## 1
Amino acid sequence: MPQALAPSSPLASEQADIACPFCGLLCDDLEMSEALSPKQPPHRACPRAQLGYTAAELTGNPGIAGKPADFEAALSAAIRLLRASKRPLFSGLGSDVQGLRALFKLAERCGAVVDHMHSGALNSSLRVLQSLGWHTTTLGEVQNRADLVVILGVDLDRGFPRFLARHVAGQDALQPARRAQRRVIYLGPKAHAPTCPAELPLEVLPTPTARLAESLRTLQGLLQGIPLPRTGKAAALAPLAARIKAAEYPVFVWAPGQLPATVSDLVIGAACELVAQINRTRRAAGLALGGDDGAQSALAVSAWLTGFGTGVGFSRGALKPQGELGGSAAALAEGGCDLILHLSSFGPAHLPAADKPRIVLAPPGFAPREAPDVYLPIGIPGVDHPGQLIRTDGVVALPLRALRPARHPSAASVLRQLFAALERKS
Ligand code: SF4
């Protein structure tokens, strides 16, 4: 008989140092003094996290073709679809390390193509890393050592609401002198300029996203002392070039997932070349903000288990990287995939548009509006059950705690049950 619920850790009535799973920063300083509820999200949860904790309150039933079903019936329907499929696409991949490990094992069993919902952004970073190399840093280094932070068009308020307050403005720094000197410059569309804590001076240099790469190349030229016209872009960027020259440890911050695909490789590449140029004589680093929806964990798990990033395709024991194809849309466009299994634990499940049977694993608060062929509700790692996620800078795997008795099984538990059932019937 399938097990519906995974065991969860004992709950303490008061908890501190809770890690938030709702963006790649994984802030691990949240606190709770009362039971979790929409009116009582953990203390320090930002607006984005509050939306996640509010969605976590919704409950729902498993479903088959839009009709409520019991868990065993929905699981059996999913098993039938997987058995009938010649080449499923496992998409979304929004899960913790344990869920992703179980998903890759099932993917190998099914000969599936595996693709994370943010694989476009992940692939952009990987392409630059492979072709140019890069020198990146960690959230801790920014907090402790950077004296200049240059934000490259990142909409921090929308995507990473506590980045400035926690890692840039925070008073907790190993080098208080550097912290006291720290300046923040935002180079990007004015509409996305961040709301800065009062104690942190912010300068805004408005630049359209489409011209960010060009601005970074101009900065390279100014730092190299190449004679440039004293008007227009070069003149506007000259004060920033002077700031960078004077800084002991400038850090350049970008968010691959927020950059349009048409310019993302160019912007990341130009930022990495600028950092490399400064590093010839001093110290500088880049910081890529991302890792939402378990993306950093998916990248790590895929690398551990397959040697490739997401996505990959399993086929009769062979493994083929699919990264250059550009994600789920390309995998589906190839015409090879005849079933979609979509996993989304931390945000709304946006299914790849395709006329294929669909199995969805998502918490009820994140279930798709349109009923899939099979819906299996799962818990949220860090809310319903413990787990681990890898932070955006890729240097730590943070433990997630259960904040309440689990209402639904973990993704890992459901995926393992699917695997066991397929093994039994083969
Ligand atoms: S910034 Fe991100 S990790 Fe931190 S509380 Fe907000 S959603 Fe959670």
## 2
Amino acid sequence: MMSTLEYDHIIVGAGSAGCVIAGRLATRTSARVLLVEAGDPGGRRPVNDLLHVRGNRIDFNSWAAAGNEGWSYADVLPLFRRMESFAGGESAYRGDHGPLSVLYREPLSELAERFFAAGSEAGLADQGRDFDYNARQQEETSFRYQVIQASQNPRVGAEYLRLALGHPNLTVRSRARAIRILIENGRAVGVELLQDGIRVPVRATQEVVVCGGAYGSAQLLMLSGIGPAGPLGEHGIDVVADLSGVGRNLQDQLILGVTYSSSDQNGLTPMVAEVGCFRRTSRRSGAQAPDLQIQSGSGTFLAPLYDRPGPGYTFAPVLAQPSSIGSITLASADPLIPARIQPNHLDADQDLDVLVEGIELSRELAHTSAYSAHLVEELTPGRDVRSRAELENYVRANARTLRRTVGTCAMGVGEDAVVDPHLRVRGVAGLRVADASIMPTVVAGDPHAAAVMIGERAADLIEFAHRSFTIRAHRTAPARLTLT
Ligand SMILES: Cc1cc2nc3c(=O)[nH]c(=O)nc-3n(C[C@H](O)[C@H](O)[C@H](O)COP(=O)(O)OP(=O)(O)OC[C@H]3O[C@@H](n4cnc5c(N)ncnc54)[C@H](O)[C@@H]3O)c2cc1C
């Protein structure tokens, strides 16, 4: 008879957060760690450089103010510092000993230089080419983007796994999908894997940590009986924990292109995120994080493709803090059938307002003296799109998801919360969720950095619990007598 596989910790999902947790636990403890990934060993490769934006300090302070102790900006700053090696050097805000190499975009193209001059004309501060939006201040200033280069980053999170290479306590299984969390007497005791068409139970002596991302984590919880009781019952799934918040609170950032052709052949770099800014629209006060991000570069972003030859440039407004809330529900109890995604994009009028203001700011930038000498034509939305109704129609037809989805297993202290501030799933022992799905609200910025930070925090929490568990186990072990 085949014996059941057993580990101390099982991490589900080798994405941005999951790799951090597996790598840190394997290097800092002697725990037996299994990392399972549904995808290939090459896994999810970034197509372009990853924009590195931590989010606004107000984001984290608002998480803490909602009762999430340990998640204020002051709490998470050391985690952000320890994950990076920043080309700009170490400071009170930045780290230079971490696994992720963070660089400024360079060299800066001539066209990008114009953005700084245009920004000044449009009321943005110009604090120099080395202005660091991941430090003291993020908003109302033009900046060049910081990135994690794709060439140095063959797999999202791979740097963390490289740290753990050679540690025999880490096992990685790719093309292995967790289809169910095994739960006995209210405690997660392992997962059922599907690999090469075979179902394999794997036991965890201590914890199961779900890091499947905003879609994968919510789906796996629901398949395992953790979620809203009514819909789970309709799929014939026995309810283990009736948590109405699972799959709710889906938040997604949208982007669209305000695109120009130009007579300037200089400084072309086929990208739309070389430089940018964060701004509060007229709906926001200084106590709130900025809700508008602008990305800009000399690529011409005509949705759905970057497809126009010849010189030009784009200002791409991004809905940084969406008010529209979507959901994920099970389409079937069959784990191989994708969950149903209801994004509800642009449901909230505020989101339309933000993107319309984004178009207006983009046009203001484009018509500053910095750009206007070379401007030939507005390609999108096009100069005939002027009235409020026309702009709204343009937004509705052209805004695209950036696939920065978060929030479906939100952390909190209320009835809607899926995990508590220690990332423990409410009502099930031995089970945590740790990835972008736990963000109560999306950060103002691109969420990869925050997902890695969540992985760092989870690794600390799990390590602490692991050490307490090990001490307890030693204390309760029968004393050995040595006979002489
Ligand atoms: C094309 C693209 C470009 C992006 N660019 C940027 C950017 O420039 N900057 C930025 O900040 N963010 C960017 N993002 C967003 C960023 O990648 C995510 O916010 C971040 O990776 C979320 O991390 P996570 O750990 O929550 O989930 P993920 O990184 O998505 O990891 C989840 C992993 O779990 C696996 N999984 C899911 N379910 C199971 C299961 N049942 N069993 C086993 N494995 C499972 C998945 O295959 C996946 O590998 C981009 C996203 C996409 C899609």
